Structure to design on (232 residues):
């Protein structure tokens, strides 16, 4: 039912760079609505990681960065660390559905 | 620091009702729009409902429209979700989430730990 599509999983060795894509459409990301990213550890609530496409809340390491172009957005993690293992979700607003929408979610595994 | 704590989750039979609560502290509750977001076991996040600061507007996901009602009491710093005609597919952890700004482009910047609703006979 999600209108934002993410890869189910990505993995990388410690220290590597990984990226997570978030593909939307002309009624959400492509319509100019901002993209936000959340990190969720098992059994805990999501936490805001990146807001308004490429901004980090206080306390979020600069290893995390976001970008947006056209109908898609991406989250990059550089210098991957074991503690980064979690699920990541993108989120935006869809003007056709008149609802907030989340991505399908991506599990990041550190090899 | 903003804190949100949900309560009211329980095991309920299909067709039953439940009322969730979210207690807010550490910020001026009446200044923020609020939401409910849910997550079925092993699944992704799904936005459920939204309410403006003054309760003037409420929105719902199609999956719950007509069955769920969101409300708030700014004097009690509390958010509520009245859930009726519950179905098995409503089984999820329900999160209370604050909308950072007064715009559809805003993120959910504060979340509660969630409360589990299980719909089963």
């Amino acid at each position: 039912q999600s209108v934002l599509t993410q890869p189910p999983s990505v993995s990388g060795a410690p220290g590597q760079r990984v990226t997570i894509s978030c593909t939307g459409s002309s009624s959400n990301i492509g319509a100019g609505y901002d993209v936000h990213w959340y990190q969720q550890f098992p059994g805990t609530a999501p936490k805001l990681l990146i807001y308004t496409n490429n901004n980090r809340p206080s306390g979020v390491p600069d290893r995390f960065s976001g970008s947006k172009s056209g109908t898609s957005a991406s989250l990059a993690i550089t210098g991957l660390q074991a503690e980064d293992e979690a699920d990541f979700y993108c989120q935006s607003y869809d003007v056709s559905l008149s609802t907030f929408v989340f991505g399908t979610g991506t599990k990041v595994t550190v090899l | 620091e903003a804190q949100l704590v949900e309560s009211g989750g329980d095991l309920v039979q299909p067709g039953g009702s439940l009322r969730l609560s979210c207690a807010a502290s550490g910020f001026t509750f009446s200044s923020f729009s609020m939401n409910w977001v849910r997550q079925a076991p092993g699944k992704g996040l799904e936005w459920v409902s939204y309410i403006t600061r003054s309760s003037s507007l409420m929105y719902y996901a199609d999956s719950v429209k007509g069955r769920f009602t969101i409300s708030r009491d700014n004097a009690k710093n509390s958010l509520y979700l009245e859930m009726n005609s519950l179905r098995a597919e409503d089984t999820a952890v329900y999160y209370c989430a604050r909308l950072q700004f007064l715009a559809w482009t805003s993120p959910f910047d504060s979340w509660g730990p969630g409360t589990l609703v299980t719909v089963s006979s």
Summary: Chain A has a mean pLDDT of 96. The beta strands of chain A are 9-12, 18-23, 36-40, 47-50, 64-69, 72-77, 86-94, 99-102, 106-110. Chain A touches chain B at residues 1-2, 33-34, 36, 38, 44-48, 51-52, 57, 89, 91, 93, 98-105 (CB under 8 Å). Chain A has no helices and nine strands.
